[in-house]
Design a protein that fits this description.
Length: about 425
Amino acid sequence: MKVSRLEPDSSGIVDWPTLSTTKKSVVTVGVFDGMHRGHQAVIERVVSLAHEQGEYAVVIMFDPSPKRVHSYAEAHSGAELPSGEPTQDADELMPASERMRLMKELGVDWVLSVRYTLAFAAKSFRYFLGALVGKLGMGTLVLGRDATMGAGRAGNVEAIEDLSQATGVFTLEVVDDAGPGDAWVPQSIEAQVPQGPGEPGDPLEGMSKAELRAWTKAHACKKVRTWSSTNVRYLLASGRVGAANEILGHAHAVEGEVVHGEQRGRELGYPTANIGQDYEGYMPVDGVYAGWLVDLGPIEQASESAESAKGDEGTQTHVSASGQETRLAAGSPWRWPADISIGSKETFAGEGQHYERVLEVNAIAGDDWLELYGHKVRVEFLAYLRPQEKYADADALAQQLKQDAADSLLIAQQSEGR
């Protein structure tokens, strides 16, 4: 797979690369945050059509996300997001490099990663699509049924179909995500810690129509597709990681650097890898989870690999099989079952004392302590085990940690069919 990183000029014009002078392209456009099963259905159709027609399978994605750019503008009198500002949105499910890795697995030939700017967003969808036809040789555009693009988001599938019919220069294919309908999600998603052990169920299950109306009104809900990034965020913020993973089609994960902590876990016989605050990915609600810990290597090496996958501005970079893919593979020696803790250390907090929220991971790797300081790691979430609790003493906590490790090991083994 080839990747081009493209930066619009100050007027919002992109210098699109010429992919071929003889070969057309099948194209899709979007943010693709989370790369859930709806996104996968669209991209799989792009790849299938491209193979049938002997054309390129092309994905145009945006980094940073439109939400990050527009949120910054709202808070800074309509200003563009400066190049030195962090680009990651706090609600982003996964970094751009991970989206590209999954696109490569699906068979995409070319990813064009466009730096989203306000000037770029101000261009009409007609101008945008005209450039794709003229420069990329777009013969077919594939979109999900709720896709929009261009100034004022005026380019919905109906408007784009009208343009396709009027010009005759490209064909629009709309992919229904084939998901299980719609879901109700609060307008403002806030973390809701489950009240007991085990993964919470759907609070709407078994409700009558009257009860459903009352609940959705009380929680100021909106209706979204079940297979949507918004619904995934809501589920993760409620501890329903298994339900979120079903929509994603893969385990939700965050990535970050292992830093030094207080080593209390080591003192209790359960040493943990402490993940620094500069992590990538959406952090689920506080609690203890079962999952996996994957060592992606020293931070410099892992970061260089991710940056090279993005490609330099205006260049074309070939992304081949990498060491990261080997590390992520099932059965990899860099991959261990793990119990995962998100929250503050309540047991050790004195009266009036508050610990900051941390992500700690205990790799279940036999008797060997894993020396991972300075490494980038991936933490994959499989199931919610229990809420955080304050224990009477260190012995009581150690006993619970032993149970967490046993539960996590069983769940991880079941997830890989062992």
